[in-house]
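One thing: can you check what follows?
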Amino acid sequence: MTYQDRIRRPTRGHRDLIDLTEELSSLIDRSGIRTGVAHLCVVGSTAALGTIEFEPGLRDDLPELLDRLIPPSPEYGHERAWHDGNGHSHLQATLLGPSLCVPVADGAPVLGTWQQVFLLECDVKPRRREVVVTVMGA
């Protein structure tokens, strides 16, 4: 069996980290699938998905780390071509990736005690994000 739905969330712009765990759990419950996998994919090239302990320190640390690794700069080819200030946003999102698979058991996502699913906005402006969730299994 396969079930697909979407999680839609507005973001505040660069560095906005959003916990999607409860929405994912609810979606899996609605799917009726008890055992399988949930595949999540954020639509767009300047946002990313992952898992993290969603606590204040790490919510600050991850975006700060990405800004140190891939800082805003007019030197990126994207900036030279488009002059839109988000070359680093594309690169940060690419580094983390747009998709994530989470196992499903007993009708719930299989996550560690301190593991939550997040959406990270890498773009420089607020956006309306859509995460496509496909739950497959029985």
The chain has four helices and eight strands. The first strand starts at residue 2 and ends at 10. The first helix runs from residue 21 to 31. The chain has one domain: 2-137.
